[in-house]
């Protein structure tokens, strides 16, 4: 890989990944590493001559609570450094300035006055005051602040409550901002970060997914040689894009294993087969394990127990298939590699700084430990990419837009969307009701944005409630099941709002489900936000 690169040192802020995403959106390659890497590590990282700049992230902590510092080498490499929030404070402290704690936190919107005509903020402003001062609308979140500039620095930005809201040493190209340019609330944040990486660091914007394919293909071929690879295909975005990419690289040396646990959405299995076996001509083994899964789930109603059973069976079935493919047989030399759709956020979270507590939701598809058990080497061709980039890559590889921009679907599938005991009849009813909901979301366009309600929601689905209610249809009384519709909007799935879908849309969905799915006579809409509710019902 010949790309210029930016190093982001993570001091544990909730929004560090956003710094990386903004820089990647400027088509510049960057990597996030924990702040407690050593100076030797930093020098090693820079040894190939491609490191063009360093960003020090914010932190959830105060400089007085933790003694996290940037490794000294960061200031000695001769490359530009940008400190954000805590990153600016630690820079100030390490270079001879002063930081003071404060009892009051400044949190939220602020207007910052640009000062000193620095290269970083030149001509970047949201408005100009009558006195001619350039002003920035920013987002702040800090208690401590820099109270004395380090030698060599000048003032770059200020607010009435934070007189040193930005500082610059233009000879060394060291900059600090107390506000957060990586969040979208900071209107010029993107312009500021682009200015830093493209102009001040002088990187070339050559990180483009379309071009990445050739590079990734070459890397896979180099890694794998003429050996064979197996991959667990779930139909989700990550495993699908990984499969398409690896197939592009090594064709028939890849075998995909698709385990159908009987808890997939309507026609999902057939669609996955049609796409990968039909259109891409990839080798796909479809394992119909629905009887096994539904059999083991019979009589079990506890959500966690259901998850455990599904997870265990999934690994068992996958292992059994993999074992067939790893032993040399008539059709295969025996696979030596297990491919996984691990993406960059998983990598960052598992390698986080010791001070950071990452909250991760694990999926049973993330079959940890399997490569060792099966004696396989691990192939992870997406481990440098963010989700947005994985999607772009998927489209560039020719996967259908609808597949690549699909809402997330939990590993245990409909198993956690049928409350209590899972039965095949329930799953069949739920599949049909859910397909109607999704179809209507896709076909209903919101006029202001011109987008469909599917694209305007982050996740939407139907939940099967194993209770019966009375209804009337024609001349007869019905006594049938109830479903709940759930649609949420969220940026990180940690918190979520229920979506304010138009009544007309809800009415159409409810009418169609009740008329078309015999066995369901009542439809409700879930108006609970997360927290305190979760997105899934189980
Ligand atoms: P909750 O329900 O916790 O869901 O608000 C947050 C996100 O995680 C997904 N989810 C799962 N994904 N295995 C998965 O692979 C699971 O067991 C699981 N449980 C929840 C959920 O769909 C949502 O996107």
UniProtKB/TrEMBL annotation:
<feature type="domain" description="GMPS ATP-PPase">
    <location>
        <begin position="207"/>
        <end position="406"/>
    </location>
</feature>
<keyword id="KW-0658">Purine biosynthesis</keyword>
<dbReference type="InterPro" id="IPR004739">
    <property type="entry name" value="GMP_synth_GATase"/>
</dbReference>
<dbReference type="InterPro" id="IPR025777">
    <property type="entry name" value="GMPS_ATP_PPase_dom"/>
</dbReference>
<feature type="active site">
    <location>
        <position position="182"/>
    </location>
</feature>
<comment type="pathway">
    <text>Purine metabolism; GMP biosynthesis; GMP from XMP (L-Gln route): step 1/1.</text>
</comment>
<dbReference type="InterPro" id="IPR029062">
    <property type="entry name" value="Class_I_gatase-like"/>
</dbReference>
<comment type="subunit">
    <text>Homodimer.</text>
</comment>
<dbReference type="InterPro" id="IPR017926">
    <property type="entry name" value="GATASE"/>
</dbReference>
<feature type="active site">
    <location>
        <position position="180"/>
    </location>
</feature>
<dbReference type="InterPro" id="IPR022310">
    <property type="entry name" value="NAD/GMP_synthase"/>
</dbReference>
<keyword id="KW-0067">ATP-binding</keyword>
<dbReference type="GO" id="GO:0003921">
    <property type="term" value="F:GMP synthase activity"/>
</dbReference>
<feature type="active site" description="Nucleophile">
    <location>
        <position position="85"/>
    </location>
</feature>
<comment type="function">
    <text>Catalyzes the synthesis of GMP from XMP.</text>
</comment>
<dbReference type="Pfam" id="PF00958">
    <property type="entry name" value="GMP_synt_C"/>
</dbReference>
<feature type="binding site">
    <location>
        <begin position="234"/>
        <end position="240"/>
    </location>
    <ligand>
        <name>ATP</name>
    </ligand>
</feature>
<dbReference type="GO" id="GO:0005524">
    <property type="term" value="F:ATP binding"/>
</dbReference>
<protein>
    <recommendedName>
        <fullName>GMP synthase [glutamine-hydrolyzing]</fullName>
        <ecNumber>6.3.5.2</ecNumber>
    </recommendedName>
</protein>
<dbReference type="Pfam" id="PF02540">
    <property type="entry name" value="NAD_synthase"/>
</dbReference>
<keyword id="KW-0315">Glutamine amidotransferase</keyword>
<dbReference type="InterPro" id="IPR014729">
    <property type="entry name" value="Rossmann-like_a/b/a_fold"/>
</dbReference>
<dbReference type="InterPro" id="IPR022955">
    <property type="entry name" value="GMP_synthase"/>
</dbReference>
<dbReference type="Pfam" id="PF00117">
    <property type="entry name" value="GATase"/>
</dbReference>
<keyword id="KW-0436">Ligase</keyword>
<dbReference type="InterPro" id="IPR001674">
    <property type="entry name" value="GMP_synth_C"/>
</dbReference>
<dbReference type="GO" id="GO:0005829">
    <property type="term" value="C:cytosol"/>
</dbReference>
<keyword id="KW-0547">Nucleotide-binding</keyword>
<keyword id="KW-0332">GMP biosynthesis</keyword>
